[in-house]
Specification:
This protein is mainly alpha-helical and 117 residues long. It has one domain (5-116). Helices cover 60% and strands 0% of the residues. It has helices at residues 5-14, 52-74, 80-116. Helix 1 runs antiparallel to helix 3 and helix 2 packs antiparallel against helix 3 (80-116). The chain starts with a helix and ends with a helix. The protein binds zinc ion. Zinc ion binds at residues 18, 20-21, 23-24, 37, 39-40, 42.
């Protein structure tokens, strides 16, 4: 089954790759976009994801963290510092891991929409 060009751009963005060629790096630092692809020269730096990535990250992780909070609250035998420390550490790490992927995926979506125009 062949993927549509828009879906290919999204999967490339999720991997932090150029949505046009899939080979160049999308980011030159953690969340800083490269001005252009080093392989194909596509101007990926012109695509502004704005506030979308943090918003989507909270949208995805919020329900999961709420569920984990309720689950940890039911385990009263565990010390509070372990429950809060573990949950807080997981929340921070999950955001740090997810944010660049969500940003790349959103840039891929925007690239796919622009490519169709
Ligand atoms: Zn490229």
């Amino acid at each position: 089954m062949a993927l549509s060009p828009s879906l290919i751009a999204v999967t490339r963005g999720l991997r932090g790759r150029c949505p046009a060629c899939g080979k160049g790096q999308l980011f030159m630092a953690y969340l800083k976009q490269a001005p252009a692809c080093s392989v194909c020269g596509a101007a990926t730096g012109e695509i502004a994801a704005e506030d979308g990535p943090p918003w989507l990250t909270v949208l995805f992780l919020g329900p999961l963290l709420a569920a984990l909070t309720f689950i940890s609250a039911r385990h009263e035998a565990w010390p509070l510092w372990i429950r809060l420390g573990g949950l807080g550490t997981f929340a921070i790490l999950a955001v740090l891991v997810m944010l660049p992927r969500v940003k790349g995926g959103l840039i891929g979506v925007l690239w796919g929409m622009r490519a169709r125009d």
